[in-house]
């Protein structure tokens, strides 16, 4: 078994500015519809958007690919289980990259405060 890790930190203002400058285009390019709906439902929506952006970056760092091989940000989705624990749902080429690594499990941790969001991804794979 191999352990892969990735971490990313994002300034909330950077995400807020990107949304303000391009509106729905940025949101649609980066987030799934479920993620966007979750984020806009909260008072601290920009913190939530930033944490999810960090999670996507942390995932591609963990798999060692970056955004190569056609992996797009919205192919990496942050969801929550029944008790609120975040996890990743992978789509398209992000899922294909995960299958190639023979991933056994992916753990995700998110945190955010007024100005900063951070995410850590730990992957256990067969290779």
Characterization of the model:
By secondary structure, this protein is of the alpha+beta class. The protein has one domain: 4'-phosphopantetheinyl transferase domain (Ribosomal Protein L22, Chain A, Alpha-Beta Complex). The chain has helices at 12-22, 24-30, 33-40, 45-63, 92-101, and strands spanning 2-11, 76-80, 86-90, 103-112, 116-125. The strands form 2 sheets. It has a 3-stranded antiparallel beta sheet with strand order 1-5-4. A two-stranded antiparallel sheet has the order 2-3. Strand 4 and strand 5 form a beta hairpin. Helix 1 packs across helix 4 (45-63) and helix 3 runs antiparallel to helix 4 (45-63). The longest helix is centred in the middle third of the chain and has 19 residues, at 45-63. The radius of gyration is 14 Å and the shape is globular.
